[in-house]
Prior knowledge:
Blueprint: E1 5-10, E2 18-23, E3 26-31, E4 34-38, H1 43-54, E5 62-66, H2 72-80, E6 86-91, H3 94-101, H4 105-108, E7 117-121, H5 124-130, E8 135-140, H6 155-158, H7 160-169, E9 170-180, H8 185-193, E10 196-204, E11 213-221
Parallel strand pairs: 5-6, 5-8, 6-7, 8-9
Antiparallel strand pairs: 1-2, 2-3, 3-4, 9-11, 10-11
Amino acid sequence: MTPRELLGTAEVPGGEPLRLFRRGADFMIVLERNELMNSRMSGSEEALATMTIDRLRSSAPHLLVGGYGMGFTLRAALAKLGPQGRVTVAELVPEIVDWARGPMVELTAGCLDDSRVAVEFGDVADVIAAGRGTYDAILLDVDNGPDGLVRPVNDRLYSARGLSMARAALRPGGVLAVWSAAKDAAFARRLREGGFDVDEVTVRARSNGKGPMHTIWFATGR
Length: 222
């Protein structure tokens, strides 16, 4: 087997470092023993964007994506949005964007330079809290599910208070979409108790319809 090559390490405020590896043509972002992202598995992250946009009423929506990851969600959103659509990407770790413009530049495919894209460096929770009635959709793929895996403080995103802030940041009919590697009945219940109508969808990890099953919750404010 081809060995993994360490390309970079990034500090996470309040969490453990992230490491970028390459094995052959594949890239992996790893947190301790957890592989958070792999360039071979993009299908569910792409579905996070396309299935959210399918649920929106606006012909020129403004999406908030947290965080950038390997850009699968952003690229899928740009491919589906019209010329008037906009995407704000909230990224806590600047090195993630450096990697996108550096060793993963071919994978990035220029998406960060699209005129419809704005990148805000910082905690997506703070971006959400600062926006009232700002976004048509908020797309969260910050941890491997609705708990603070990358750093404990991320738990606030998935708490009742965090969901209330997300609802306030959405425009009428807006969608909060949350990606997860597994089901979480307690989180789905918390969404409903927070005033959302919830559509829970399972999708394959890979764009060819193979790989493990992942979960996306599409929550629309009542």
